[in-house]
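RECORD TYPE: protein structure
NAME: Signal peptidase I
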Amino acid sequence: MVDVDPEQTPSSDEPTSDASDETSKKKKKGNFWKELPVLILVAFGLAIGIQIFLGRVYMIPSESMETTLHGCTDCYGDRVLVDKVTYRFTEPSPGDVIVFRGPPSWQNDFITDEPANPISQGLSWLGSLIGLPSANEEDFVKRVIAVGGQTVKCCDEQNRVTVDGKPLDEPYKHFDEGTPAEQESFEELKIPDGMLFVLGDNRNHSCDSRCQGQGGINGLVPVDNVIGKARVIVLPPSRWGGVSDHNPQVVSMGAPGWQQSVPMGVGIVAAWPLLLLGRRVRDRFRR
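PREDICTED:
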């Protein structure tokens, strides 16, 4: 006869493996629903932090930057990713396409009414937290033409804008079909330190430093008002691509080409931690 250890004898009261698996699954489901609100709060917190410190998507609602950025009435306005990191290390440079808060002397050329419905207002507010653009914001997008200490004027004998007496190279410049390819002239203007002279690429369909505040000093943009640099067109998919930051003064001033790649490099390096963090959060949701 074989002796049987009573401690090793299975008891009918002990749960079977199937029952243990079922209990484990229930615990996992319970933990997921407990963690979900925390994950949602973390996601919103990350979204708010990203748009405040790193970058944000903006909508282009006007035609002033055609054809670099589409914003016409009859087409789908571009959504651009604006890099907020670069100008923490450098100043805006000629050729940069920037988003900035309009100075008091500027009047926005495209403003929509706030939704009257409380639900729509709430959804709009939530959208702004995660970076969805609002068309009624007093923000503008233009290209930097001259910076503090430089003198700008239009035009020379070949109808070109000049900076410090030298003509600019502007391949991005656009004139609407059926309109004369001639720029609106303006008097010579010395740019004070800390200010920017900006123009739209759609040169005769843009109210910019030439006409805002009736031009002159009132049309300039303080560097402190700059939000960031437009980097990439993210929507619509057919328009995916980088935003040109060709320096129009390179040819005339002889600035070294490597300088143009420094801000982009800084922006890319700063974006890597954000991408890794976003992947971890996404993987957490999937599990």
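COMMENT: Confidence is low (pLDDT under 50) at residues 253-264.
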